[in-house]
Amino acid sequence: MSVVLSLKGKKVAVRMKAVSMAADAGEADRKGRKASKETRRQQLIEATIDSLAKRGYSETTLADVADGAGLSRGIVNFHFESKEKLLIATLQAMADEYAAHWQAALDKAGPSAATRLWSLVAADFDRKICTKRKLAAWCAFWGEAKSRPTYQALCGARDVTYHELFVSLCAELKAEGSYAYDAEVTALALSALMEGLWWRLMTGDGFSREKAHGAAIEYLVAVFPRHMSHDGPK
Amino acid sequence: MSVVLSLKGKKVAVRMKAVSMAADAGEADRKGRKASKETRRQQLIEATIDSLAKRGYSETTLADVADGAGLSRGIVNFHFESKEKLLIATLQAMADEYAAHWQAALDKAGPSAATRLWSLVAADFDRKICTKRKLAAWCAFWGEAKSRPTYQALCGARDVTYHELFVSLCAELKAEGSYAYDAEVTALALSALMEGLWWRLMTGDGFSREKAHGAAIEYLVAVFPRHMSHDGPK
DNA sequence: ATATATTGAATGAGTATTCAGCAAGTATCT
DNA sequence: AGATACTTGCTGAATACTCATTCAATATAT
Q: What domain range includes position A228?
């Protein structure tokens, strides 16, 4: 019995460490047992993102998530109900965060099309969104998305609105600056470019957020020379 | 005994069908038993690509591959040695095919930087390379690549040579046409754009190879107006 | 005292891997 | 040519293992 107890003590100590590393995003981080349902869920979601980033989709196990969160094995099925639902909630959370950040960038920007476009592009390479950890998690989902309608919907929900705004902004700039290009194609290229740069960021080593942002800006300047300079919208 | 035989007969019939659908890439397609080792390996690789495209990485099982190839369950471990090695061989095969296609495009192109760049861009959206099936398989590997050095090496081997050539071609054009842009950044944006377009092709529905190619061309025209037109290099 | 969160061992489903046996081909001998 | 042993591709049932899920017991909060 005493052996069991000392083992338990050890385990608890290990867990404390894991918890503090993984996610003390806690508002009311009531220690040990009682954390609010919502806090626990977020903690587990954070641990899931960690695991996805570290081990990839196919190697992410509930055991790893639980360990990462410093909790016991059965915990996920208690708070979510299945692995599938945990993953969907995780993707949902990331999509929500992305959308909020995107909306904030839009609100902060001025009214002109050039300012808004500039701001949206900048938002995508913002330090808050554009973490290696999060990009890796996105990547893990994307890799599975083609064969999973649910993931595809969540990954793509964003794309639709996003792309539509891009198209209308490009159209506006085209009208103002009488550029020759087709707005739809230009917008498509822009969002493809940004996705490709994200991709590079995940993979590449000597490749920074700033460099990626720079490449996106170069595109803006090349396509909308009468509206954009390297230092910002004119 | 007779029951066993008739069952066998049925199974063989089913298999024949599967084989003819999946891959009769056979040179010396010696029927039934004796297909050369190499032929069998390729057949299994094709079935693996099918499975990856249809079910995604995490849901691809050896049973599914074997069924797809119309062969028995133990077959993969006989010809490859493990699932891991089959997947690596598959990725290798795709990378080889891509590289060969790319080299061919380079050889066919004229000597000028503009022609070569144009040809390389076209090659990426060629009907032979740019199949939904293959893109989906690439995608499956990419999703896992970040957490698997072996995959990353195979996916990325291409990128290094590829990107270096892009940079030098862009630098050449820059020198000829006295463009303002930094060649490295321009090349980076171009390859990111193309990766992003590939990505879109995998995912999107109402999005064709031609449209993607068009968007890439639009970028070339925008950045190198003195070298490129919508109909080809000047 | 009751409700609620948490644990961790047990369960079971799915799947990679193994391997003994079978059958199609090939070589050798008579 | 026919019979014989030998090689090699292939099969599929048995094995071993990983992991999601369950649940009775326990700890903690109100």
A: 88-233
